[in-house]
Amino acid sequence: MLFADAFKYKQWANAELLDLGERQLQQMPDSDAEFFVRILNHTAVVDSLFISRLCGEAERYQGDNTRETPTFDELKARIAHNDAWLVDFAERTTGEELQRVIAFRFTDGDLGQLSVEEVLLHLLTHGSNHRGMAARTLAINGLERPKDTFTRYLHQAEPARRELALKAIS
Q: Which long-range contacts (CB under 8 A, 24 or more apart) does 42-45 make?
């Protein structure tokens, strides 16, 4: 259940960041706007690589980013597709599945082996790291950043938490 909530949070946080980015991209220097898109595209590519590995399917990408910078609409579609898949996977995965070990080759040629649980944790922390980098790009340009904490997400997704907290504290 915690993984399902964490991937729903990732989906929510990505959507919030992309919404802010889309509204403010033109206010950044071209190099910062390109970085914003490329760093988030990197996370989408890495998500896709690991989704392929989890499914035992051929990988769509040869590296950890694409050569060409995608349009903002392409980026949003990639992220939305991956996030929906990961939420669904996390909701239906079992304890046994989380312990399954997958062996694979990283895009640099090194061999890797991770449990499904470790893959999911990697995707969560990796995405969080790069969302932070993209948000920092907004901040250094004096633009609005997301307020994308996990606690904020949980209280928006489950408003009754605030009422329960008030009862507990009173």
A: 42/130, 43/79, 43/126, 43/127, 43/130, 43/131, 44/75, 44/78, 44/79, 44/82, 45/78
Tokens of 7: 């991937």
Quick one: pLDDT band at residue 96, thresholds 50, 70, 90? very high
- All domains of the chain in start order, with CATH: 2-169 (1.20.120.450)
pLDDT digits (tens, 9 = 90+) for 111-166: 999 999 999 999 999 999 999 999 999 999 999 999 988 888 888 888 887 777 77
- Please report the DSSP string for 55-74 in residue order: HT---S-SSSS-SSPPPHHH
List Cβ neighbours of 165 (8 Å cut-off, separation of 6 or more).
none
Buried b (16+ CB within 10 A) or exposed e, 107-121: eeeeeeebebbebbe
